[in-house]
Write a structure and sequence with these properties.
The chain is of the alpha/beta class. It contains 16 helices and 16 strands. The strands form two sheets. Strands 3, 4, 5, 6, 7, 8, 9, 10, 11, 12, 13, 14, 15 and 16 form a 14-stranded mixed beta sheet that branches. A two-stranded antiparallel sheet has the order 1-2. The longest helix has 15 residues.
Length: 432
């Protein structure tokens, strides 16, 4: 029931069916309308707008339902039934250790085990959760461990609906528990996006017998179990891939990634110590172009030492792609000749990220000059960033934008802010 303005019930005998307005606005106020009196399709549209009112707060995880949607769902039983699928569309769970003792029951009612109890008590099964993020602490206590023990059961029950899964700092000591977790994840047949950040799951033996995952479009693996990197082999339709191998090596995955280039739109490889792999990707892109195969790459982020030959091959290959955002983290104070080559290869480049600055340092004269030279050398450039610390964890960086052309081209004063949305923005990198 949705009405606005000040109103009070009439004191007349037929007050049950009449309303009067306050004197201040009696001449202008119209009778309030009831939300549920509107056509069903309009009600659904209004509620869907409320559910999108809160944007994703992080480049890493779905943020859960908006507070406005949760409040609206409590207006009446009928509205609650309409809102319920949207309320449970996105769930974000993070264990909070510092909670007022009186809030322990509140926390217990919003845990992973509570979802399972809800499904059992309602008799309707689990709600249709489409996006789920679970973040554990580095040293889980007994209560948190019990919550995480319910994760595999929860995921198995979400198989029909789950599309996006974000896990961080999830670890089990027992091998069977790790294998059960991975098995429950891959059992979600409609899952299209996964991010593993410091997750210990699965085993090498289990990976050898695992079936293909054709529905998966986005895969991000950062640290954690090395066997999770092997998931790349099982995902023939990947469009978005981010890998940060703890060993700093891709090894036999290099040809696998090369085979995915005809479909990959977003590729980020962090902390890779094999210089030749970048030239291998460049050569494969050129080969595909020669055979008439389109390479749809839109964003390319590389971190790792490269020889001049490797860089020349990679930059030359960019002309055969649709790249608009480029990050080459190992480049510190790039030479004018390299910037000239990039400008020729990618005349429509919109954003470029050179090597990171020193962690916690102020913007130095050298970095300012680097940002300025980027704008001068690449006329199409709209944004440039000098990153602080590692990028996949969403650290901060010095942002600047460019405006104007020719002699009127100007560099905006760089500002330090988060780079999460710039590098791994949920709306771009998650192809669901």
């Amino acid at each position: 029931m949705c009405g606005f303005g000040s109103r009070k019930r009439s004191g007349s005998a037929d007050s049950s069916n009449s309303w009067t307005t306050t004197a201040s606005d009696s001449s202008t106020q119209q009778p309030p309308f009831r939300l549920l009196d509107l056509p069903t399709e309009i009600v659904l549209q209004i509620i869907s707008l409320v559910s999108r009112n809160r944007p994703f707060e992080s480049g890493e995880f779905p943020s859960g339902p908006s507070e406005e949607l949760c409040s609206l769902s409590q207006a009446s039983k009928q509205i609650h039934d309409i809102c319920r699928p949207l309320v449970f569309q996105s769930i974000s769970w993070k264990y909070q250790k510092r909670v007022n003792p009186r809030s322990l029951s509140w926390r217990a009612g919003r845990g992973l085990r509570a979802l399972l109890r809800l499904a059992e008590d309602s008799g309707r099964g689990l709600p249709p959760i489409q996006m789920l993020s679970v973040v554990s602490s580095s040293r889980p206590n007994v209560e948190e461990t019990e919550e995480l023990d319910a994760l595999s059961t929860l995921l198995a029950g979400l198989s029909p609906s789950l599309k996006v899964l974000w896990l961080r700092k999830i670890s089990f000591d027992d091998r069977n528990d790790r294998e059960t977790l991975l098995a429950s994840i891959v059992s979600c047949s409609n899952l299209s996006a996964i991010r593993f950040n410091q997750v210990e799951a699965g085993s090498k033996k289990q990976m050898k017998s695992m079936a293909q995952l054709p529905a998966l479009k986005t895969l991000q693996v950062m640290h954690g179990s090395s066997c999770l990197l092997e998931l790349v082999r099982l995902c023939p339709n990947l469009e978005s891939l981010l890998l940060w191998p703890e060993s700093r090596r891709l090894g036999t995955l290099v040809p696998v990634i090369s085979s995915l280039l005809p479909k990959l739109r977003f590729l980020s490889l962090d902390a890779v110590s094999e210089p030749s792999c970048f030239s291998i990707f460049g050569e494969e892109i050129e080969h595909l172009a020669e055979t008439g195969v389109n390479v749809p790459m839109e964003e390319l982020f590389f971190e790792g030492a490269q020889t001049r030959r490797d860089m020349d091959v990679l930059v030359r290959s960019l002309a055969k792609t649709s790249v608009r955002r480029l990050a080459l983290y190992h480049l510190r104070n790039p030479k004018p000749s390299l910037l000239h080559d990039i400008a020729l290869a990618v005349p429509d480049l919109e954003a470029l990220v050179p090597s990171p600055a020193s962690e916690g340092s102020p913007l130095l004269h050298k970095e300012y000059n680097t940002l300025a030279r980027l704008g001068e050398a690449i006329p199409s450039l709209e944004t440039a960033v000098c990153i602080l610390l590692d990028v996949s964890e969403g650290a901060s960086g010095y942002f600047t934008t460019f405006a104007g052309t020719g002699e009127d081209r100007r560099l905006a004063t760089p500002e330090e802010k988060t780079v999460k949305d710039f590098l791994i923005g949920f709306d771009r990198w998650v192809v669901a």
